[in-house]
UniProtKB/TrEMBL annotation:
Its cofactor is FAD. Residues 6-328 form the FAD/NAD(P)-binding domain. Pfam families: Pyr_redox_2, Pyr_redox_dim. The lineage of its organism: Bacteria, Pseudomonadati, Pseudomonadota, Alphaproteobacteria, PS1 clade. Its EC number is 1.8.1.4. NCBIfam families: lipoamide_DH. GO terms for molecular function: dihydrolipoyl dehydrogenase (NADH) activity; flavin adenine dinucleotide binding. The active site is at H445 (proton acceptor). Disulfide bonds join C43-C48. This is Dihydrolipoyl dehydrogenase.
Length: 466
C-alpha cells in the first residue's frame, strides 16, 4: 500500500469523510484513518442514524396505537424489541456501507487503525499487532467527541448507560432515569417512553434544553409531561448505586441542597460531550488546545502547526454533524487554494422529539442580551389546513426580525415536521432575507410551509388565517 499522500484525514465521521471526498474532488491523493470497525463515526454508528431509526420506529408504534383510530385505522399494534433493534442495526449497516462505496468511487485510501501524529508530516497507525507509518503534506484532525462523565456515576453500559447503551436496551425497562434533559436525553427518553418505560429526567438547569428558544422548550415540556414523562429540574445526581436488581439514585436540589432518593431499573447519562483527542499525540507535536480541550484553530481551521488542521466536534462551536460537514468542505477547499467558508449564523439545529423543535439564527434571549430590537411574528399549526388533516396541530412557527430593517435574525419552529421546515428558514437567513421577503414568497397549498409565510405576515400583524 502507498504510504505518501497529499492529505490524510484522521476520523471518518461526517466531518472527516466529507472532507476526504472534497479533497479527492479537488485532485488530492487522500487517505482516511478510522479506528472503529465501521466508517461514519458517532453520527452513523452510535448517534444521529441509529437514534433516528429508533425515533421513527417508536413514533410509528405510538401513532398506530394512539392516533390512527381517529382516522379510521383500528387494529392495535405490538412491538418486537429485538426486531426494532435489528432494524436500527440494518440502517447503520446500509449507511456505513454507503461511505465505503463513496471512498472507492473517489479513490480514497481507507486505513483501519488508531492514528497518532508523530511529527508535522508523519502519522503512526496501530492496528492490533501491526504498525505502519504514513506521510502527508496536510493532516486534518476530525476525531469528534465522546460523552462527558460525572462523579458518582460509573457507566457500565448495562444498567448505568451512556447514549450508546441507550440505543440498545434489550428489554423495555419499567423505569428509566435520564441525567440531563438536553438533546440526547430528550430524544432517547422519547423513544423508551413511547415503547412503555416510565421516564424521569433529572436536569441541573431550571429548564429543559438550555440553549433552545425558551418558549419552544417550555411548550415541549408540557407536551412530554402530558405523555407521562417526568422532569426534576434544578437537581443534580450525586450517586447511583446498585441495589439488588434496581438502582438507587441519590439526588440533590441545587438551590436548597435538599436530598431525594429514587429507584430506577436503568439510568442513562447524557450530560454533554467533550472533544475526543485521546492517543492522537497532540502533546508530542505541540498542538494547542483550549481550557475545554478543544483544538485551537484559526479561521482557516489551521492549528498552530500550519499544515495540521482540525474540524468538527474537536474544535469550538455546536457539536452537530452538519456543522462538521460544512467545515470539512471549507477546509478541503482552503487547503486546495480555493475559497472555503462556513456561515455560523445559519447553522440549523433540530431536536427530533414529537413535536420536533428546529431553530436557526438567534433566540429571543440572545437578541435581548445583544440589545437588538426585534419584532415577533407567530403562527400556530392549529390554523394550518395541512397540519389539521395530518392530525398534527401542536406547535407554532416564530420569526424574529429586526425592528428597524426587518432582516430575519432567527426562526424557531416547534411542530411535527419542524426539522424539514427549517430548511427554508436557513436559506432565508443565509440570503439575508427580511420577513417581508418570506411573506411575499408564494408557498404551496396545502403544506405546513404556509405557516412560515403566515408567521412572516404576522410580523406586521397581517397573518390571514390567524
Ligand atoms: P446537551 O448539552 O444537549 O445537554 C446536556 C444537559 O445535561 C444540559 O441540559 C445540562 O444542563 C445537563 N446536565 C449537565 N450536567 C448535569 C448533571 N450533573 N446533572 C443533571 N443534569 C446535568 O448534551 P447531550 O444531550 O449530551 O448531547 C451532546 C451533544 O450532542 C449536544 O451538544 C448536541 O449538539 C449533540 N446532539 C445533537 C442531536 C441533534 O442534532 N438532534 C441529537 C443528540 C445529540
Amino acid at each position: 500500500m502507498k504510504n505518501n499522500f497529499d492529505s490524510i484525514v484522521i476520523g471518518s465521521g461526517p466531518g472527516g469523510y466529507v472532507c476526504a471526498i472534497r479533497l479527492a474532488q479537488n485532485g488530492h491523493s487522500v487517505a482516511i484513518i478510522e479506528k472503529n470497525k465501521n466508517f461514519g463515526g458517532t453520527c452513523l454508528n452510535i448517534g444521529c442514524i441509529p437514534s433516528k431509526a429508533l425515533l421513527h420506529a417508536s413514533h410509528m408504534y405510538e401513532q398506530s396505537n394512539n392516533e390512527f383510530s381517529k382516522m379510521g385505522i383500528t387494529s392495535k399494534t405490538s412491538i418486537d424489541i429485538n426486531e426494532m433493534l435489528n432494524y436500527k442495526e440494518s440502517m447503520i449497516k446500509s449507511n456505513t456501507e454507503g461511505i465505503q462505496f463513496l471512498f472507492k468511487k473517489n479513490k480514497i485510501t481507507s486505513i483501519k487503525g488508531s492514528a497518532s501524529i508523530i511529527s508535522d508530516n508523519e502519522i503512526k497507525v496501530i492496528n492490533g499487532k501491526s504498525e505502519e507509518q504514513y506521510n502527508a503534506d496536510n493532516i486534518i484532525i476530525a476525531t469528534g467527541s465522546t460523552h462527558n462523565t460525572i462523579p458518582g456515576v460509573e457507566i457500565d453500559e448495562k444498567n448505568i448507560i451512556s447514549s450508546t447503551g441507550g440505543l440498545s436496551i434489550g428489554n423495555v425497562p419499567d423505569s428509566l432515569l435520564i441525567i440531563g434533559a438536553g438533546y440526547i436525553g430528550i430524544e432517547l427518553g422519547s423513544v423508551w417512553a413511547r415503547l412503555g418505560s416510565n421516564v424521569t429526567f433529572v436536569e441541573a438547569f431550571d429548564r429543559i434544553l438550555p440553549n433552545t428558544d425558551t418558549e419552544c422548550a417550555v411548550y415541549l415540556k408540557k407536551i412530554l409531561e402530558k405523555k407521562g414523562m417526568k422532569f426534576i429540574l434544578n437537581t443534580k445526581v450525586e450517586s447511583v448505586e446498585k441495589e439488588k436488581d434496581k438502582l438507587k439514585v441519590l439526588l440533590s436540589n441545587i438551590e436548597n441542597n435538599e436530598k431525594m432518593e429514587l429507584s430506577s431499573d436503568i439510568v442513562m447519562q447524557s450530560v454533554g460531550r467533550k472533544p475526543y483527542t485521546e492517543g492522537l499525540g497532540l502533546e508530542i507535536v505541540g498542538i494547542d488546545q483550549d481550557e475545554l480541550k478543544r483544538i485551537k484553530v484559526n479561521k482557516d481551521y489551521q492549528t498552530n502547526k500550519k499544515n495540521i488542521y482540525a474540524i468538527g466536534d474537536v474544535i469550538s462551536g455546536p457539536m452537530l454533524a452538519h456543522k462538521a460537514e460544512e467545515e470539512g468542505v471549507a477546509v478541503a477547499d482552503i487547503i486546495s487554494g480555493k475559497y472555503g467558508h462556513v456561515n455560523y449564523e445559519a447553522i440549523p439545529s433540530v431536536i427530533y422529539c414529537d413535536p420536533e423543535i428546529a431553530s436557526v439564527g438567534k433566540t429571543e434571549e440572545q437578541l435581548k442580551e445583544e440589545k437588538i430590537d426585534y419584532k415577533v411574528g407567530k403562527f400556530p399549526f392549529i390554523a394550518n389546513g395541512r397540519a389539521k388533516v395530518n392530525n398534527q396541530t401542536e406547535g407554532f412557527v416564530k420569526i424574529l426580525s429586526d425592528a428597524i430593517d426587518d432582516k430575519v435574525h432567527g426562526i424557531h419552529i416547534i411542530g411535527s415536521d419542524a426539522g424539514n421546515l427549517i430548511g427554508e428558514a436557513t436559506i432565508a437567513i443565509e440570503f439575508g432575507a427580511s420577513s417581508e421577503d418570506i411573506a411575499r414568497t408564494c408557498h404551496a397549498h396545502p403544506t405546513l410551509t404556509e405557516s412560515l409565510k403566515e408567521a412572516a405576515l404576522d410580523v406586521d400583524s397581517r397573518a390571514i388565517h390567524k
